[in-house]
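Supplementary Data S3. Sequence and structure tokens for construct A.
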Amino acid sequence: MSSKQVPVADSTREDRITALMELLRPKVEDRLRRLVERAVDVSEAEEFGAIEYQFRDAGLDLANEVRQAAVASRKKRAT
């Protein structure tokens, strides 16, 4: 097999990744936008403190959305 050929299993995997990325992209972009706005708008007094927890929580929420989307995708394939 040449280096340009993609095994069928990898192609299927790549298709699943692409589908999940397309599903999650709007949510990710929206959350990223809100985080960037918050970072730009925060006062110097708040740069360290509560904002750190907000950013951490946003990251955890995003990780959970990815996990839930992956689980839902697997369930769809099983039916």
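Construct B, processed identically:
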Amino acid sequence: MVCAALLYIPANVLPVMNTRTIFDDERDTIMSGVLVLLQSGSWPIALLVFVASIVVPLLKILALGVLLYSAWRPSPHRRLQRSELYRMVEFIGRWSMLDIYAISLLATLVQVQSFASVIVGWGAWAFAAVVVLTLLAARTFDERLLWDTPQHD
């Protein structure tokens, strides 16, 4: 989970896609892609990309941090809510790879070498690592730890 939190920064700072045409070379980060979509009038898609690629991974990392803290410092309060938070993180984890699939598909479809090419950037690799690491962190977390009774000395 800590590695995912550290990789979240390069995933959002480094380019996820390098687009090369006969006229121009562009390096797009997730946020620059959102801004391009907004400027072109595709605000619903821009909102979807922003939420799915920036907000959801951040919330997953924060939720996993809350769950780890709750397991480390057990408390009888709000156990059901913490269990629901865990199930939500686990459910969302299945859908997080959609962004990576979209970039991979785009890179594969646009490989007309004489006119344009799309190369997956380091930001996409960092983003994929964030997704995989949060997915593994959620899968390996033992939900029963949230229900343990605190020991009193």
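The chain has six helices and three strands. Strands lie at 17-21, 25-28, 116-120.
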